[in-house]
Amino acid sequence: MNALTQTQVYRSSKHNGGHDVSPPVIEHKLHELDARSILNRSSFTPTARRVSPGDGLAAEQRLGRVCLVGAGPGDPELLTLRAARRIAEADAVVYDNLVGEGILDLARKDALRIYVGKKAGNHALPQDDINRLLVELASRGLNVVRLKGGDPLIFGRGGEEMEDVLAAGFPCEIVPGVTAASGMAASTGIPLTHRDYAQTVTFTTGHLRDGSVNLDWVALARPHQTVVIYMGMGALEIICRELIAHGLPPETPAAVVHAATTPEQRIVTSPLRTLPDLTRQAGLRTPSLIVIGSVVELYDIAQTAAAARNACSA
Predict the structure, then answer these.
(1) Active-site residue numbers?
(2) Cα separation of 33 and 301, whole Å?
(3) How far apart are the C-alpha atoms of 27 and 24, rounded to whole Å?
(4) N or C: where does the chain have the smaller number of CB atoms within 10 Å of the terminal CB?
(5) Rounded mean pLDDT of 237-258?
(6) CB 13 within 8 A of CB 19
(7) If DSSP codes are grouped into helix, strand and coil, which group holds residue 302?
(8) Spelled out in words, what is the top-level CATH class assigned to the domain 3-50+61-173?
């Protein structure tokens, strides 16, 4: 891999092709931007750091920092003001598959952009290596944004990344984002709580760290609550079967919502017992949320009201 000079253009790795961006002003040459090469100290200049014009502080003395930023559920207009500001300030943006279209455009043209994947079952970089990458970039004095879909501390592994960054001695800021469940509720009209239907809402992951689906089925099958399951599409049939086996009525309203808040949003609603078959027939895939509870009935009410408004305005 050839080293690049300051006047050349380098390409960042991305799942559907790289972005060509101008390199930052640095003290030393950088290799082509690639997460694995950065982690391999033998192939990446260890003292490469950004130098701000007129900065009297030597680059080696500058302390890097990491900011874990929630990118929201997909619609870039749901990004928070602080998130947009942190992205615009970043020297390096480490991002994953669930970052909505257009959000990366907020980054500076000279910012490093590093794609680390996180598609279901297809991670471009294992989580431990992502943690190391954040520390490695901060050690070069860079202002690093770790950009994650939804909220970084709700099934985003932000806690693990924060632990490693702080343990390495670097500051770590957390910028919350609109979590996928909240975005889904707003875009579908399915409320997460409702005094007549659900006094409790539970968020859970569809699989544990070891890949098993050994969830707390008794707690998830309790009545008068809304259950939202993240990352559960691969175990949808098991989830529905176990909830019914642990006491949830087979006719419980349920839904699968794909790509909520984006133009690709699609939804399947049905009783719990038929949800796997109808979801399969509809061809829904990740990223999708599974929503279970009586509040799902309100989706049809919201759709009927929206159709009536559209008819009146036509």
Answers:
(1) 96, 118
(2) 50
(3) 10
(4) C
(5) 98
(6) no
(7) helix
(8) alpha beta
- Is pLDDT of 262 > 90? yes
* Rounded Cα gap, residues 161 and 22, in angstroms: 28
Rounded Cα distance between 269 and 79, Å, is 28
Please give the model's pTM, rounded to 2 decimal places: 0.80
Q: Residue 107 and residue 89: Cα distance in Å, rounded?
A: 7
Q: Treating both helix axes as pointing N-terminal to C-terminal, what angle do 127-138 and 158-167 enclose, rounded to 10 degrees?
A: 40
Phi-psi map region of 127: left, alpha, beta (phi>0 left; psi -120 to 50 alpha):
alpha
The token pair at 129 is: 């290596």
Q: What is the pLDDT of residue 314?
A: 67
| Average pLDDT, integer, range 235-243 | 97
Residues in the chain: 314
Residue with tokens 């939202």, as numbered in its chain: 228
Cα–Cα separations (whole angstroms), residue 187 to 182, 243, 256, 260, 303? 9, 26, 13, 7, 11
Across-strand partners of 195? none
The residues of the chain that CATH labels 3.30.950.10 are 181-302
What is the per-residue pLDDT across 175-195, written as a single tens digit (0 to 9) for each? 999 999 999 999 999 999 999
Of the pLDDT bands very low, low, confident and very high (cuts 50, 70, 90), residue 101 is confident
DSSP string of 128-179, one letter each residue? HHHHHHHHHHHTTT-EEEEEESB-TTSSS-HHHHHHHHHHTT--EEEE----
- Between strands 112-115 and 92-95, the pairing is parallel
Residues 6+ apart with CB under 8 A from 134: 66, 94, 144, 146, 161, 164, 165
| Region(s) of the chain under CATH 3.40.1010.10 | 3-50+61-173
Query: Tokens 């909520």 belong to which residue?
Result: 260
Higher model confidence: residue 40 or residue 87?
87
